[in-house]
Design goal:
5-stranded mixed beta sheet, globular, 10 helices, 367 residues
């Protein structure tokens, strides 16, 4: 099984037929991943709220969320021992992420991403990211550095099984690992967060079983590659309009609208929750990925969308994990699936003060 859930998920498709998957309890699933593991610095739109620092980045979020869903998660990264890296590693440890391969040599400073959340003139939330320089002190922020082939050789020697391999950045090391895990029979999930080398990009598409991408950023680049090497499942996100998908067997696109959520505070990280939800649900299916039915794919996608919708009611990519109990999270997601919206929330808790920060980057003077 792919992690513990209290009840089976029940969905009804467009024709009114049940798409429920019976969940069979067994061992937790395992995921390895490489790509953007960062330190997120979240500046709330509420001046009363402190600035928080959490582990983030596409790969960091997806693997941490899967660990939250009771997977065994192993990020493969080059985190060193500076203050930012330690902060991110301590955060991931809280959620039981395994860091055996998070400090591959040569180690490097973790990327630091500042997210400023504000509201437009209509009171709607919007956010701005700072990748290169700190908006407070102007200091340079570290860039992403991929794992090296020397490091991936060590991983391949040590790891001989996994259920899923996830990557969001292409590099020689990321592709080397993708080939290794594919040979082991793992599900390969590619979600590009940057274009990178065209040859690497094309090979990533060829190796992937699932490709998920934004229609605004990658549609033109990916369409040509997927026509040559169609993945088993291709997911194209459409922002407020939901997503559409097609499979190797069914070439026509099927659109799934977004859930109509109220009180949206922030959309950052919703795509990461959707990805984790799709992986989690697909791996619970007794049919197995290769024999998955159309209803099975749709159930997994709707579950992923429900997780993404739930995340919209919190500021920051994973803030809800710190503000709600696991049971409350499960109940709210089930309500979204059943009713299109969660039950009215009674209360939330504040994150631990250890996640609060005086500065916006390691170089900021404490205020």
């Amino acid at each position: 099984m792919c992690g513990y859930m209290e009840k089976p998920i029940s969905l009804i498709n467009k024709e009114g037929r049940s798409m429920s998957n019976v969940i069979k309890y067994s061992r937790p699933k395992t995921v390895y991943g490489t790509g953007l593991v960062a330190l997120d610095i979240v500046i709330s739109s509420n001046p009363e709220e402190p600035t928080y620092q959490w582990a983030g980045g596409t790969c960091g979020n997806v693997l941490t969320i899967l660990s939250y869903l009771d997977w065994k998660s192993y990020p493969i990264a080059r985190l060193n021992s500076d203050a930012s890296s330690l902060h991110a590693k301590n955060d991931m440890k809280q959620w039981k992420v395994n860091l055996d391969y998070a400090e591959m040599t040569p180690t490097a400073s973790i990327p630091v991403i500042t997210q400023e959340i504000t509201k437009d003139k209509n009171g709607q939330p919007k956010h701005k990211f700072h990748w290169k320089n700190c908006p407070k002190c102007g200091s340079w922020l570290p860039n992403y550095k991929p794992v090296t082939l020397k490091s991936t050789a060590l991983v391949k020697e040590a790891v001989n099984a996994s259920d899923v391999y996830f990557f969001d950045r292409t590099s020689s090391g990321a592709l080397d690992l993708a080939r290794h895990f594919k040979e082991l029979g793992a599900l390969i999930f590619f979600e590009p967060s940057a274009k990178g080398d065209p040859k690497h990009f094309a090979e990533a598409i060829k190796l992937a079983d699932i490709v998920k991408y934004s229609d605004q950023r990658f549609a033109s680049v990916i369409t040509e590659s997927t026509e040559k090497h169609r993945p088993h499942l291709e997911i194209q996100t459409l922002g407020d309009n939901g997503l559409r998908y097609r499979t190797k067997r069914r070439k026509r696109w099927t659109t799934l609208p977004a859930f109509d959520m109220e009180d949206i505070l922030d959309t950052c990280g919703c795509g990461d929750w959707t990805t984790a939800g799709v992986i989690h649900h697909l791996c619970q299916s007794s049919e197995g990925f290769a024999n998955q039915t159309p209803d099975g794919f749709e159930a997994a996608l709707r579950y992923g969308q429900a997780l993404g919708a739930w995340n919209c009611s919190f500021e920051g990519a994973r803030s809800g994990m710190y503000r709600m109990t696991k049971r409350a999270f499960t109940n709210e997601v089930e309500a979204i699936l059943e009713n299109g919206k969660p039950k009215k929330r009674k209360s939330t808790k504040s994150p631990n003060v250890s996640y609060a920060s005086d500065g916006l980057c390691p170089a900021c003077p404490a205020s």
